[in-house]
Design brief:
The structure is a single chain. The chain is of the alpha+beta class. The protein has 10 helices and 9 strands. The strands form 2 sheets. The chain has a 7-stranded mixed β-sheet with strand order 3-4-5-6-7-9-8, sandwiched between helices. It has a two-stranded antiparallel ribbon with strand order 1-2. Helix 2 packs across helix 3.
Length: about 290
């Protein structure tokens, strides 16, 4: 019987004993080294084959705080560049209004800019013109600039999907085990910005349609696996989500308004609409598959 549970994994008394023996067998090892050795011993890997090192370290810390194991002291405090990250600088661009028809604005060019020289341009535009500002994504993520006639007209950011969204999980119909195993096949649209001087009818829904047609192949090229389902949140107090609906996204439900660390059971943030889009027609079957 499991004594603890972490990120979908049951941790038994035998597991805790095994971890204790591992620590005792490597008295001079750092927490990071112990975590990697445990991942290797348990064959605890991500879908792309990489060790689940950060997840394992979180589990070890939980067990240490619960008094189940005794970790070695922290050998050093790693510098965290995110703690004092300089905000992206404003971008000097031609802001002459673009008001022509969509067909005369074509062709549109989609540029994936993560790890390219144009990434600072993307970051600066989001920081200056998106109401949520710029936040550095963690985990798997891609960033896009959309260009027309040599000028940027839109920005889109995609990242790893949140682990638990009730309305989405009910819509997909997957089990907890399948969700844990297959959450990597979902991508979350964290930012979508049409630059404020661009006022072209139907542009936003057209960009979303073009984006959904290419996102899986781009993800495959960067991360080695496809995307089967897309999701986003829309704040109904600010937006109607018209462009998503026009691009055939489906309203899945609403968030509870509670964060992942909520202890009260009461809403503590704005309630968002959850919209989804199936990239693969067999998404339910593919996402519902668990480990054999």
């Amino acid at each position: 019987m499991a004594n603890h549970r972490y990120r979908g994994r049951d941790i038994t008394a035998a597991d805790i004993l095994n971890i204790g023996e591992l620590i005792a067998a490597h008295p001079g090892a750092s927490r990071r080294t112990l975590s990697k050795k445990l991942c290797e011993a348990w064959e605890w890997r991500q879908p792309n084959g990489a060790l689940r090192d950060m997840v394992c370290r979180g589990m070890l810390l939980m067990l240490d705080r619960a008094g189940q194991i005794v970790l070695p002291p922290v050998s050093y405090v790693r510098h965290n560049p995110l703690a004092q990250r300089v905000r992206p600088a404003p971008m000097l661009l031609d802001t002459t209004p673009i008001t022509q028809r969509l067909r005369t604005l074509q062709p549109l060019e989609f540029q994936q800019v993560r790890r390219t020289s144009d990434e600072p341009l993307f970051n600066g535009l989001i920081e200056e013109h998106h109401y949520l500002g710029y936040e550095q994504p963690v985990g798997e993520h891609l960033k896009y600039l959309v260009w027309a006639q040599g000028r940027p007209v839109a920005c889109l950011a995609w990242s790893s999907a949140p682990r638990h969204i009730g309305s989405r999980d009910r819509y997909i119909g997957w089990s907890s085990e399948a969700r844990r195993r297959n959450i990597c096949f979902l991508a979350y649209n964290t930012r979508f910005l049409i630059l404020p001087w661009v006022r072209v009818e139907h542009l936003a829904s057209h960009i979303l349609s073009r984006m959904t047609a290419r996102i899986s192949a781009d993800w495959q090229a960067v991360y080695g696996h496809p995307i089967y389902f897309l999701e986003t949140f829309v704040d109904p107090e600010r937006f109607r989500g018209t462009c998503y609906r026009a691009a055939n996204w489906t309203l899945l439900g609403r968030t509870t308004g509670r964060g992942k660390d909520d202890q009260t059971g009461r809403p503590n943030r704005s309630i968002k609409e959850v919209l989804g889009y199936a990239v693969h027609r067999r998404f339910r079957q593919l996402l519902g598959e668990s480990a054999k």
